[in-house]
Every structure is written in structure tokens, then in C-alpha cells.
């Protein structure tokens, strides 16, 4: 039997065929394909494509959720095949506060287990204030922090501060952090890993050479933290502003009103993320992405510029850095 291919697994996800998907993964593993190769070559890329299909409007949220649940079940089934012999740890792995995308962390947990680390996974969107007491009980060697979307950077930084407050180092990873350590360092993390193999090597080095000196867990905030703390009220105020500025919104149905409200929230939260890590491109890249995707939503094309203006109108005047970034790239050609 030939090894399982990503396209084959993706087809099973698309058909919501849980039993066949799990069987295909286990047959491939039992046939000699390593656990890491199944994750890196099949499960992870298939899950990325699931996200892309949702973003392009090809799959509904329900289809994306069904596919993700099957992938999670497949990882769980594979985990029972791993003859892990934990030699180091424990390691605690969690997702940034607010980040409900737990699949990357789930995969990382099992990959680290397969590499003989004792790992406890705390799941999605862990409230930062819940970390210190738990870590004081478990006394982990280190904490791994996953952040998949940049709008959760403020929550990620709160988690780093909480972990440092009990004297434990943090390795940060995840899609939101990009291909360098810049964002991870801006969040206050002690290390950055592009993948689990790099994280495991860093942990092994810390074990052999000693833990890094932790950064000051001070509670210094910036405009990004302020926006993150108030994003829901700012979003609602921006929607009111848009009703004043865009008369056509009186004809919007409930679906388009809901999507416009959601997009305003995204604009504010990605702006917050850019400010938290001091990287304007976090916001600008999101703005370019949403400009490409608005046209897939009936009745809402052409309002991105008005949305940005509305956000600019409701962000407090004292948040000068926020206004500076907003002014960098108004979506030209949209009204």
C-alpha cells in the first residue's frame, strides 16, 4: 500500500469521512511512514489547505470545523501508537490567550512526546491569569507558547509575562510569528522556533547548558494593549460611525451587517497586534488580505476604506502610534 498523500487525506476531510481518514493515517503509519512525516507532509499541509478553502469561501465554517475535528481525531489515534519514553521535562504547551486555533499546539505536543519530552498541553485560548498557579504546581522546565494569528499578540504577551512571573522560560512559535525571531522577541519570549524540531533542539540546549536569563516581567503597556482591552467597544462604535458615513448600509441584510461588524473587529485587533510587536506590516498585510477577500462577500465589496476611516474616527486621539499606522495605507480605490 502506497504512503498516504496530502491530497488523499484532504479528500477524506472534504467528505467528512472520519473512519476512513483515521484508518488511512494509521495504515500509513503501520506501513512504515514516521509520525513526524505524517504530520509535516500530510496532516499539517492538509489543515492549512482547509483554512485556505474557508478563507476563499469555498468551504463553510461548518465544513472547516468538521475537517479540523477529524484531523484532531487522527492525531489522537496516532498518539496511541507512539511508544514515548519521557526523559525530560515536564514541558507545558499552551495557546495564546484569545487564540482558539489549537491544532498547531496539538500537533506540536505529540511531536515533542515522540521526541521523548514529557508534555502537558493546556489547549486553546488559555487565560494568562490562570497560568502562574498552575505552573507553580507543575514546575515545568519550560513553556511552549503557540500563536497562530497576529491579532492575538496582546494575549500572547500577557501569557509570556505570566510565565516569567514564576521564573519559567518561554519558547514561542506558530504561524503568526513569521520566519524570524523578531515578533517572538518583541513578545518577550526567551526563544523562537520555526518548527517543533527546532524547539526540541533549543530545549535540549537549555537542559545541557542551563536556562536563559529571563526578561523583566514588568507590566509596561503600549497602544496595542490598550486597543486589545477595548476592541469590542471600539468595534461597535466604528459600526455606528459607518452607519453615519455609508448610507448604503441601510439596505444591508443581517448577514452583511454581521460580517461588516466582524471585519471592523479584525481591523482593530490586527492594528493592536502590529503595535504590540512594533511591526507595521502586521496590520498592512492583513489590510491587503481583507481587500482581496471582501469581494467574495455579496453586498460588501467597496467598503473597506470606509471601515478603516471609521476605525480611525473611534480610536482615541492619545493613541498616536495607532493613528500613524492607519494613515500608512488607506485602501486606495475603495469607497
Task: Describe the protein's architecture and organization.
It is globular and about 60 Å long. The chain is α/β, with parallel strands linked by helices and 335 residues long. The termini are far apart. The protein has a five-stranded parallel sheet, with helices on both faces. α8 links the parallel β4 (170-173) and β5. The model has no long low-confidence stretch (mean pLDDT 90). The relative contact order is 0.08. α1 packs across α3, α3 (35-55) runs antiparallel to α4 (61-79) and α10 (223-245) packs across α13 (304-314). The chain is built from 14 helices and five strands.
Indicate the structural class.
Answer: alpha/beta
Name the strands of the widest sheet in spatial order: 2-1-3-4-5
Listing every helix as H and every strand as E from the N terminus to the C terminus, the arrangement reads HHHHEHEHEHEHEHHHHHH
Count, helices: 14
β-strand number: 5
Task: Return residue spans where pLDDT drops below 50 for at least 5 consecutive residues.
Answer: none
Report strand %: 5-15%
Mean pLDDT metric: 90
Radius of gyration: 21 Å
Shape descriptor reads globular
Largest sheet: 5 strands, parallel
Fraction of residues in H or I helices: 55-70%
Distance N terminus to C terminus? Answer: 56 Å
Amino acid at each position: 500500500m502506497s504512503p498516504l498523500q496530502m491530497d488523499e487525506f484532504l479528500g477524506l476531510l472534504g467528505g467528512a469521512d472520519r473512519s476512513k481518514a483515521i484508518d488511512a493515517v494509521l495504515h500509513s503509519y503501520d506501513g512504515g511512514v514516521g509520525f513526524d512525516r505524517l504530520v509535516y507532509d500530510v496532516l499539517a499541509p492538509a489543515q492549512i489547505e482547509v483554512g485556505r478553502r474557508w478563507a476563499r469561501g469555498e468551504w463553510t465554517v461548518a465544513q472547516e470545523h468538521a475537517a479540523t475535528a477529524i484531523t484532531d481525531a487522527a492525531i489522537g489515534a496516532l498518539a496511541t501508537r507512539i511508544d514515548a519514553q519521557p526523559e525530560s521535562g515536564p514541558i507545558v504547551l499552551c495557546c495564546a490567550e484569545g487564540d482558539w486555533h489549537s491544532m498547531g499546539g496539538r500537533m506540536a505536543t505529540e511531536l515533542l512526546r515522540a521526541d521523548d519530552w514529557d508534555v502537558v498541553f493546556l489547549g486553546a485560548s488559555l487565560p494568562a491569569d490562570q497560568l502562574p498557579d498552575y505552573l507553580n504546581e507543575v514546575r515545568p522546565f519550560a513553556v511552549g507558547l503557540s500563536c497562530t494569528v497576529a491579532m492575538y499578540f496582546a494575549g500572547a504577551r500577557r501569557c509570556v509575562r505570566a510565565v516569567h512571573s514564576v521564573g519559567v522560560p518561554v519558547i514561542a512559535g506558530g504561524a503568526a510569528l513569521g520566519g524570524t525571531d523578531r515578533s517572538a522577541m518583541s513578545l518577550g519570549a526567551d526563544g523562537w522556533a520555526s518548527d517543533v524540531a527546532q524547539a526540541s533542539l533549543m530545549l535540549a540546549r537549555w537542559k545541557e547548558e542551563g536556562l536563559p536569563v529571563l526578561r523583566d516581567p514588568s507590566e509596561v503597556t503600549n497602544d496595542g494593549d490598550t486597543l486589545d482591552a477595548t476592541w469590542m467597544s471600539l468595534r461597535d462604535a466604528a459600526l455606528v460611525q459607518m452607519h453615519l458615513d455609508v448610507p448604503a448600509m441601510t439596505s444591508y441584510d443581517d448577514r452583511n451587517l454581521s460580517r461588516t461588524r466582524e471585519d471592523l473587529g479584525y481591523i482593530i485587533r490586527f492594528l493592536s497586534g502590529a503595535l504590540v510587536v512594533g511591526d507595521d506590516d502586521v496590520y498592512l498585510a492583513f489590510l491587503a488580505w481583507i481587500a482581496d477577500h471582501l469581494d467574495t462577500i455579496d453586498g460588501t465589496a467597496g467598503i473597506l476604506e470606509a471601515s478603516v476611516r471609521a476605525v480611525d474616527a473611534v480610536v482615541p486621539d492619545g493613541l498616536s502610534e495607532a493613528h500613524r499606522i492607519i494613515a500608512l495605507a488607506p485602501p486606495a480605490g475603495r469607497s
